[in-house]
Amino acid sequence: MAFEELLNDPVIQKYLHELVGPTGMPVAAAPPDGEVTDEELAEELGLELNDVRRALFILYENDLASYRRLRDEDSGWLTYLWTFEYENIPEQLEFEMNRLLEALDERREYETNNEFYLCGQCQLRFEFGEAMEFGFECPQCGGQVETMDNDRLVDTMRRRIEELRDELNVRTEAETEPEAADA
Predict the structure, then answer these.
(1) pTM of this prediction?
(2) Smaller CB count within 10 Å for the chain: N or C?
(3) Which residues contact 111 (CB under 8 A, 6 or more apart)?
(4) Cβ proximity of 62 and 37 under 8 Å
């Protein structure tokens, strides 16, 4: 897929924006063909050199850019020639989605396996053990903490987990057990 096609995808635009931020987005959105120096990019885009370098290193850390170093024989200065590798974006997005799935699953588990209490005044939330430690009183305002129903939150996480699993074509152990029993 060509850079232009990738960069027209709103999901990929959002992903790149999340990675490099608003100051680095011009760098991420303008990948040149072939190699380019950070100085050339800064000049071409009218950006501060440090902003360009920051964006390039973030892209590098996420396997979306690579560089090679050249040493000037006379001065000894190093020049970095950058290449954008946006063909790795789909793989990186899938990796991020898997990380999100894992984090949501862990959070759903935590929310399901714990009892929470809420201060209606301060909106502070406490686990059962914390609430018991404080005598079921809010340490900030002294008000009574009440049992918190987090069923809607857990249900929302469950639905999002199912959507991610469908998108990633990931099956749970429970979904694969009947197949093993049939074999």
Answers:
(1) 0.66
(2) C
(3) 150, 153, 154, 157
(4) no
